[in-house]
Amino acid sequence: MRERADLIRSRQGGAVDARLFESPEFRASVLNELVEQRLLLLESERLGVAANDVILRELIAQIPAFQENGKFSPAKYEQVLRAQGMTPSAFEQNLRRDLTQQMLVNGVAATTQISNTQLNLIIDAEKQEREVAVAVIEASNFLKSASVDEAAVRQYYEANPRQFQVPERVKVSYVVLNDPKVVAKESENFSNMVYEQSDTFKDVAKALNLKIEESGWISSNGQGAQGVLANPKVLQAIFNPGSLKDRRNSAAIEVAPNVLISVRVTAHEPVSLRPFESVAADIRQFLTRKAALEKATVEGEARLADLRAGKAVDIKWSPTKTVSRLQPGGLSRDAMQLVTGVDTAQLPAFSGGVVSGEGYSLFKVSAIKPGSPLSDDKRAQIATAYQHFVQQADVVSLMVALRDRYPVKIAKRPEGEKQP
């Protein structure tokens, strides 16, 4: 779970709300990923699929972090892994596992092919044009009649505590070693000193002429972290339960080539809940908008039923415009699904739904045209995209089949037992 959290932090530049990592949905996604990894390994073993040593060595040698002057460096390889708390054998085992899984998945995807007949049907659907007019039953028209009492506001607050949590936050003291010449000579000494004098940076700062820095408040979602402190590996070290409890120096962390840092938590405020009084107005506004949208939906569905029944309905339609899946003309994906999914056996045809928080949208399709021929390049783009989509579907089918072949049982945590 920590690896997935670090990956998300890295992709988002370190600033991610920690509540995401505590949600049941996040935990379930991580568990599902672990199950799928295990299923792929079992199937790989059954089929005799495995990444050999030659492939493994070639891939490792191509990783820039393990190179010096453009060539693989065994010393650099061990140094980088050591800074991440890993051994070469553990790293290679994980890499071999990932490569083996990818080989199996790629093997399944490579068997996927689409025929010219299928491609032509897809392209015809993509370029088909529809004349569409839109009308919106706006939720704002129902705000005055949408009432929310204090009990409902309080109930929402109590039922959704995660929405109103204030992430835990810390202040840290830290030292950075970033002079390439000093790093080359003193990286091991730096690592030893921050470990051996784990409650202070005074000795290492004096020995290596470093400045002891102090941070402001840093939230567990990365807010407030500046410079090297925003590095995902540093944030992980800061909010490690042991760091928060013991207030000791972290191990030396390599955040970039020739840049080492050690941090120590100096102040800590745990997760807290925003007072009800400070969020009540926002909750009331949200619930009022929600109630108004529900009223607009009821009104919109009633008008849609009348339109489909051929009754006269007083609706102000927008000017008609031509749309297609390739050129949606400003319509959202949800709106296009309603437009393209409507039964057009008899025109005009009508559909409707909530496609935004603004209200209930009604769509009138008055004409259908085949659309203009596509260039060879555009046809090739569509073919590639659809091929990828079908390959993904085949991989999903593989995972379903593997769950049947290797039954999976998820053990539920006993009630009252705290999650790690």
Structure description:
It is extended and about 85 Å long. Helix 3 (24-47) crosses helix 6 (88-110) and helix 6 packs across helix 15. It has 15 helices and 13 strands. The strands form 4 sheets. Strands 5, 6, 7, 8 and 9 form a 5-stranded antiparallel β-sheet that branches. It has 420 residues and is of the alpha+beta class.
SSE order and pairing:
Layout: H1 2-11, H2 19-22, H3 24-47, H4 53-61, E1 67-68, E2 71-72, H5 74-83, H6 88-110, H7 116-127, E3 129-138, H8 150-159, E4 165-166, E5 169-177, H9 180-196, H10 202-208, E6 213-214, E7 218-219, H11 232-238, H12 241-246, E8 253-256, E9 259-269, E10 272-273, H13 276-308, E11 321-323, H14 333-341, E12 349-356, E13 359-369, H15 376-405
Antiparallel strand pairs: 1-2, 3-11, 3-13, 4-10, 5-6, 5-7, 5-9, 8-9, 12-13
Helix pairs in contact: 3-6, 6-15, 8-13
**Which H/E pattern describes the elements?**
HHHHEEHHHEHEEHHEEHHEEEHEHEEH
Main pleated-sheet profile: 5 strands, antiparallel
Q: Can you give the helix content as a percent range?
A: 40-55%
How many helices? The count is: 15
Report the C-alpha radius of gyration, rounded. 29 Å
- Parts with pLDDT < 50 across at least 5 consecutive residues: none
Rough outline: extended
What is the overall pLDDT average?
87
The total count of strands amounts to: 13
- Secondary-structure class: alpha+beta
Quote the beta fraction. 15-25%
Kindly report how far apart the N and C termini lie: 10 Å
